Amino acid sequence: MNRWNHRERIGVGTNIGFVSLLMIFLTLCLTCFCVLALSIASKDSRLTERSLDYTQSYYQADELSQETLQKLDLGLSTIKKNTSDPSQYYTQASNFLGTLGQDARYEETDHTVTLTYSISEKSKLLQVIQINAPSEKMRYTVLSTHTISLPDDLSGQSQNLWKGN
Hints:
The protein is of the alpha+beta class. The protein contains two helices and four strands; from the N terminus they run H-H-E-E-E-E. The protein has a four-stranded antiparallel β-sheet with strand order 1-2-3-4, covered by helices on one side. The protein is rod-shaped.
């Protein structure tokens, strides 16, 4: 053996260097990140579709509410022309609400009408309208228009709720 040769041959083998290990690790990392990005993009796409469907349904319900308001306005105008007695006016207005074709609940105490329009299985558009007296210039006043969320059907499930101390 040469004293100047510090390397000895141990045997023939495959040398895997640091660069090769680094490339394998980077390839695995990039593959994982690509799969994660693809799954997130897929979920975002589904969420966007659901949001689009809900928005379209909301505006269809809003359009229907505006059409109902137009019918109510025309009906109240006709009733106002034909009657002068306030009690008869409210009675005829109450009867007219049944012809609107919507789920209308009339409260005689404060002369309000609650109209409900379906947006989706879990939400509705709720509109509260007050019918003004025949002596007033405006026939009705929209008190509120808002969406409500319906509870999920939990009839077949038991719930463990904390009862307190």
